[in-house]
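Researcher: Let's do a round of design. I'm pasting the structure tokens now; please hold your answer until I've finished.
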């Protein structure tokens, strides 16, 4: 089957080509992301393959449907970028990669906790500059600290297991009880206000839904411990960034680690080092010494990329051969 692979980077091409050659698909790699402007590039392709920041809104979907596209293969887990209602009306099916190495994201979230706590990002710059002063680099032992985990699914659970290994107390919040979380021992489910009130570190691992959009806002920040560390490796829209900037200025939030950002579609996955970045909120964010922002790289391990490519090709095979696809997205993103 001919597949237009949008937002294609060299690493996508390398792994998909090596695996795809054996499956008989003709993969055409397109560097541009898929949106209303670029939808014309999908004309004549029965399937498109897209990534996290491709915008499959109603306008884009109508355009690709008119060009003959009937299947969307997402190379990611989250599908908040797809207007599923319109897709269904147009007879376009979509499938995602429901699961791939959850260790990739969980381990990265732990990396942000460690770097922020012990100021490794600042120490790295200091020693390169011949500055061996320890002023301002003091951290705290993780052992005995309370970690709040919002979303205890695949990634949240592994994050919990690793933090448990450090000797942390764990507070979880989820609509769905995960028995593997409570089985950890020093872990219990609580309501959100209790989690906000008691956590020294809060890590977000729930999907972006209408209900979770701006879950972290001025009101919920007000409930948090002064100096709390906040980690978001899930989706940028979970956080009201301007409220978080106010809380950093007011020293309510003591450290912030972001791998995702609400307006990331205009920035991430591109080299903009020779450009003037126009997003003032983002630019303010990266001026804080106690903030680390990375460009949506938590998934980026060789293990995860291999899992993603294999499942994506399985999904394309299922569609082409008219088989039921276990990864087909049938429900809009609503909370459980
Ligand atoms: P998952 O489905 O296994 O777990 C998500 C959990 O969130 C579930 O237990 C679900 O019940 C819970 N949840 C749903 N609505 C909730 C709510 N309102 N409040 C609290 N919990 C709620 O998903 P996962 O594989 O663990 O992935 C979690 C998220 O991580 C994804 O939604 C995706 O946005 C993000 N992600 C980011 C990257 C990255 O590279 N940064 C990569 C993969 C996934």
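Researcher: That's everything. Go ahead.
Model: Designed sequence:
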């Amino acid at each position: 089957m001919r597949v237009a692979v949008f937002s294609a980077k060299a690493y996508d091409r390398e792994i998909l080509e090596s695996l795809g050659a054996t499956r008989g698909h003709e993969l055409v790699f397109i560097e541009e992301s898929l949106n209303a402007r670029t939808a014309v590039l999908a004309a004549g392709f029965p399937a498109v393959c897209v990534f996290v920041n491709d915008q499959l809104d109603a306008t884009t979907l109508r355009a690709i449907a008119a060009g003959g596209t009937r299947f969307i293969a997402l190379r990611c887990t989250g599908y908040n970028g797809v207007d599923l209602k319109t897709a269904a009306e147009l007879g376009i099916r979509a499938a995602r990669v429901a699961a791939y190495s959850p260790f990739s994201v969980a381990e990265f979230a732990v990396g942000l906790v460690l770097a922020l706590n012990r100021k490794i990002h600042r120490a790295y710059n200091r020693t390169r500059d011949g500055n061996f002063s320890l002023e301002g680099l003091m951290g705290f032992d993780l052992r005995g600290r309370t970690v709040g985990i919002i979303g205890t699914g695949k990634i949240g659970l592994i994050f919990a297991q690793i933090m448990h290994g450090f000797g942390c107390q764990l507070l979880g919040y989820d609509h769905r009880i995960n028995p593997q979380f409570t089985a950890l021992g020093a872990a219990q489910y609580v309501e959100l206000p209790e989690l906000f009130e008691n956590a020294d570190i809060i890590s977000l691992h729930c999907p972006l839904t209408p209900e979770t959009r701006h879950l972290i806002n001025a009101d919920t920040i007000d409930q948090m411990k002064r100096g709390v560390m906040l980690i978001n490796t899930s989706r940028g829209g979970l956080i009201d960034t301007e409220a978080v900037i106010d809380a950093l200025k007011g020293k309510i939030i003591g450290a912030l680690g972001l791998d995702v950002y609400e307006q990331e579609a205009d920035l991430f996955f591109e080299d903009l080092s020779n450009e003037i970045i126009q997003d003032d909120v983002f630019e303010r964010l990266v001026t804080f010494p106690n903030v680390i922002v990375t460009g949506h790289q938590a998934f980026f391990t060789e293990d995860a990329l291999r899992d993603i490519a294999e499942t994506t090709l399985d999904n394309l095979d299922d569609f082409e051969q008219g088989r039921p696809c276990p990864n087909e997205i049938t429900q809009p993103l609503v909370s459980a």
